[in-house]
Amino acid sequence: MAGDAAAKGMKLDRYASALRRVASGKVVSASSHLLFRATVLATLALVFLFTFHYPSLLSRSFSLSSSSASHPSHRSLLMSSSSSSSPAAATYGGAAWEKEIRRSARPTRDGGLAVLVTGAAGFVGTHCSLALRARGDGVLGIDNFNAYYTPSLKRARQARLAARGVAVLDADINDGELLRHLFDLVPFTHILHLAAQAGVRYAMEAPQTYVASNVAGLVSIFEVAAKHADPQPSIVWASSSSVYGLNKITPFSESHRTDQPASLYAATKKAGEAIAHAYNHIYGLSITGLRFFTVYGPMGRPDMAYFAFTNSIVSGEPITLFAGARRDFTYIDDVVKGCLGALDTAGRSTGDAKSGKKSGEAPLRVYNLGNTSPVPVTRMVGILEKLLGKKANKRVVAMPSNGDVPFTHANVSHAAQDFGYRPTTSLEVGLRHFVDWYVDYYKVKLDVPKISKVASGAGGGKPAAKKKKKKAAAAMVTSS
């Protein structure tokens, strides 16, 4: 009996032990499931919070601004004013905004063009937009108003355009959503793509800016034109004489080699011409590239040589000249005529955004727009000295190997043949117009009388500030 009792006791102990192991396993399993669920919930919560608080990090496009804090986010451009605290974004989105877009882009003449102008508050963009509007074409502008040079000058140009009925959006050409929305609102017949990061030397400081603007920005424009616009618009865009790079055969012809760029700026423009070839071939886009040669004139760019030298001569600061430098200085009015001629003669695109197919070959063209008369930079300074009534404190140095080229000289026979391009403004006359505008805009008093009056339409201001007042102004020989 005692043996049976002992056996039963051992069985009970094993049974109890088994029960404890099962219970322990269930507890561990339950704990594991609970921990797993808690981890999943915590992860979802973190994703939600991240998305809610940092949406821009999940949908970021290139920013062409020097300071993102000074510009609205790209997506805010399509929102109502209540959704953004940014002053610039407050005017974007909604029925009133869309009505203004359509009004600005609507031609006022029979057969007029509807043109989207990028870089519209830039030097060439402003003059082209004014000329298009003056002849009755519809114009809508885009500009990101970056701080490469004083934004106040760009705002003054924007104000002048507004006075002529041209709206300029404070926007980024890499904002594909905005571009698609604009093409939903307006059946643009043409795009005049002038937005770009200019300057030869600045590329050594901010190379990514050039890639974002001159390469990615160009692709952004081609993408919306090829895959969203219905019908596809014809595109005219600003290449540059810089693509000729180290070519020493003059005058530069469109048939000359362009595979030796001397600067990153030139390389991005050369890349743009190759990209244009691809979009023309694949999607049937009608594309015309214009190689500008050292454009100058009223409302110009402060980083260009003639403008920087004028600032220095007026303020009595020294200027630095590169020995032997010659430029094919081209007056803005002549360039505008070339741009409008290219727009008027651009053939139609042959692609279909809906089907993704093209019905035939579309035009792919490239033209030089220059003055055909290269001038030593020293002569340009001499003309400025005469117009300003003041001698420059000159220092002549050797040409640096930082992207500058010693000379430019345009052969424009192709543009002359295809759309009657013929530059007519001499450097003396063109600089006289520039100085008259400069004196009026900056309220400068000279010891010489004005010979002609050029209305600025942009109010007064102070001469463009320099980074260091005592630093000699170097020749800014950007060719575009």
Describe this structure in words.
The structure is a single chain. This protein has helices at 2-53, 94-105, 123-134, 151-163, 176-185, 207-227, 264-283, 305-315, 332-345, 377-388, 413-419, 427-442, and strands spanning 114-118, 138-143, 167-170, 190-193, 234-240, 287-292, 295-296, 318-322, 326-327, 330-331, 364-369, 375-376, 393-397, 473-474. By secondary structure, it is an alpha/beta fold. A seven-stranded parallel β-sheet has the order 3-2-1-4-5-6-11, with helices on both faces. A three-stranded parallel β-sheet has the order 13-8-14, with helices on one face. The termini are far apart. This is UDP-glucuronate 4-epimerase. It is found in: Golgi apparatus, Golgi stack membrane. It catalyses: UDP-alpha-D-glucuronate = UDP-alpha-D-galacturonate.
CATH topology of one domain: Rossmann fold
CATH homology group of one domain: NAD(P)-binding Rossmann-like Domain
> What gross morphology would you assign?
globular
Mean pLDDT: 83
Distance between the termini: 113 Å
Strand order of the largest sheet: 3-2-1-4-5-6-11
Strand content: 5-15%
Sketch the major β-sheet.
7 strands, parallel
Quickly give the structural class.
alpha/beta
Radius of gyration: 31 Å
Order of helices and strands: HHEHEHEHEHEHEEHEEEHEEHEHHE
Give the proportion of residues in helices. 40-55%
CATH class of one domain: Alpha Beta
Poorly predicted runs are: 5-12, 22-32, 38-90, 467-472, 474-479
Helical element count?
A: 12
Total strands? 14
CATH architecture of one domain: 3-Layer(aba) Sandwich
